[in-house]
Specification:
The protein has 493 residues and is of the alpha/beta class. The chain has helices at 10-17, 30-38, 53-66, 95-101, 104-120, 151-167, 198-215, 240-250, 265-268, 273-283, 297-312, 318-337, 349-357, 395-401, 415-423, 439-451, 480-491, and strands at 19-20, 42-45, 71-74, 125-126, 171-177, 219-222, 256-258, 288-289, 359-361, 374-378, 406-410, 428-432, 456-459, 472-474. It has a six-stranded parallel beta sheet with strand order 2-3-4-5-6-7, with helices on both faces. A six-stranded mixed beta sheet has the order 9-14-13-12-10-11, covered by helices on one side. Helix 16 links the parallel strand 12 and strand 13. The protein is globular. Residues 1-7 have low confidence and may be disordered.
């Protein structure tokens, strides 16, 4: 049962209520349980907190034993960004694969099944879906996390995802408002800038968010991006013109606004997390997400004290902080009373979707492999949202279908030559991610195909480069099920 420490004043409780911190370990530390008793209302989970569905269910039960209405949030997009299956790869293809199929009912079913699994583990808030329109092919952080480059397609699948997820009683948090798709900079590292005109933003970036609002999304996540047409002075997360005037006023949104991770360098390196958190709440944000990198009690204390001090100094209106805290509690009430659709589990819906998302070209004379190949994975540096602990590729699935399959990972200007030497006489399967963004990767494929024109190419990122290979298989994502679908084609099963 919820118990709030009697010695915690209203202002301090409200400051704790708007925080969504993380922690380390697979059980809740004492400091976190103590903060829940003092007023903390949300907890963010990451891959480091999850070992199995059973362990996760026990962890969320531990949290609710301290505060029964706690919001337990997670960054579970499916596809490349998975926390439930961080060590094995996801059972669900990501947004780009779903967009490639373009069946909104399939997207709804996938999101519903994902939501069912989250709810079964006690998670009630998902920082998903990504509603970003991937209009910039050079985007280093969105890519396959987007449904695609067409605003109308992204809009209809965003709405379907929100509907499916929330039918399981899990609140959707549509991101990254007002749209992170037209960036060439990763906001984990620096502050991106989108120099688009207002009419372009309205027709392109905002269309999926309007669809999410119409579908009833319970939360929205802000982007750490500078959009001068909306606000020339500050990033969206800290911008009253973006969060209050546009999202609340023009679009009529009344739900929870969550910030993206405040320790991301776009904010931390320019404003600092304490000042950034104060400015975010003043601008209209209701919940401060922090914990991907900073995951300790000291961070919670610093942010709590910064908010309290800002109110006492007259820099942050107390009623704005109280309003933000009430929106957090309102979402908690919704999760407690949400009607869950009585859908049957669909354990194979992810694989079915991944199979439908495959696009194979240049396969006119292709015969499925009967002998174990050599898989050369040309691996770029993973962006922070995806992480480098989640396995990807086709080697594991090919090894299951064609025992004896060997693999190696290559990068840099000599990657192609090194892969040829490692493969020897074996048939080569070259696996790439976003060839169009990595010149060294394109050079490596050139080297392979000159010497071994029968090389099979599997593109597991955005298939922007011209297809080549015998055949070329585009999976539209690197989730485990995407690798399995590609391996089935290669092995002819």
């Amino acid at each position: 049962m919820t118990t709030i420490a009697s010695g915690t004043d209203t202002l301090t409780r409200d400051a704790l209520t708007v925080l969504q911190p993380g922690f380390t370990g697979t059980t809740a530390p004492d400091w976190l349980l103590r903060r829940l008793g003092e007023g903390l209302a949300s907890v963010g989970l990451f891959g480091r907190n999850i070992a199995s569905p059973e362990q996760l269910a026990a962890l969320t039960a531990q949290l609710r034993a301290e505060r029964d209405d706690v919001l337990v949030a997670i960054d579970e997009e499916g596809g490349d960004v998975t926390r439930l299956e961080v060590r094995t790869g996801s059972s669900f293809p990501g947004n780009h694969a779903l967009g490639a199929v373009d069946d909104v009912e399939l997207t709804r079913q996938v999101a519903s099944e994902l939501g069912r699994r989250l709810a079964a583990c006690g998670v009630n808030l998902n920082w998903a879906p990504s509603a970003d329109v991937n209009s910039n092919p050079s985007n280093p952080v969105i890519g396959v996390r987007s449904f695609g480059a067409d605003p109308a397609l992204v809009a209809r699948h965003t709405a379907a995802y929100v509907t499916g997820l929330q039918s399981a009683g899990v609140a959707a948090c549509t991101k990254h408002f007002p749209g992170h798709g037209d960036t060439a900079v990763d906001s984990h590292h620096a502050l991106p800038r989108i120099d688009a005109a207002l009419d372009v933003l309205a027709d392109r970036e905002l269309a999926p968010f309007r669809a999410a609002l119409a579908a009833g999304t319970r939360a929205m996540m802000s982007a750490h991006i500078l959009v001068p047409a909306l606000d020339p002075d500050g990033p969206a997360t800290l911008s009253r013109p973006v969060l209050t005037d546009l999202l609340r006023g023009d679009l009529g949104y009344t739900g929870l606004i969550v910030t993206d991770g405040m320790e991301m360098q776009a904010i931390a390196a320019t404003y600092g997390i304490e000042r950034g958190s104060v400015l975010a709440v003043a601008a209209g944000a209701d919940a401060i997400c922090v914990g991907g990198g900073l995951a300790d009690d000291e961070t919670v204390r610093r942010l709590r004290d910064a908010l309290v001090a800002a109110v006492r100094a007259g820099e942050l209106p107390e009623e704005r902080l109280a309003e933000a805290a009430e929106r957090v509690r309102e979402l908690a009430r919704w999760t407690a009373t949400a009607v869950r659709a009585q859908a049957e589990p669909r354990p194979d819906i992810g694989l079915a979707a991944a199979r439908r998302a495959l696009r194979t070209t240049g396969a006119g004379d292709f015969g499925p492999l009967t002998e174990a190949p050599y898989v050369a994975a040309f691996a770029p540096v993973a962006n922070i949202a995806v992480g480098d602990e989640t396995p990807w590729g086709v080697a594991a699935e090919l090894e299951r279908l064609l025992p004896g399959t060997e693999t190696g990972s290559f990068a840099g200007r000599d990657a192609g030559r090194e892969a040829l030497e490692a493969a020897g006489e074996r048939r080569i399967v070259a696996v790439v991610r976003d060839e169009h963004r990595h010149p060294w990767m394109a050079t490596a494929l050139d080297t392979l195909l000159r010497s071994r024109p029968d090389t099979i190419v599997v593109e597991m990122g955005v298939p922007q480069a011209p297809p080549r290979g015998a055949p070329h298989i585009a999976t539209h994502g690197a989730a485990r099920v995407c690798g399995r679908a590609a391996a089935e084609v290669i092995a002819g099963v």
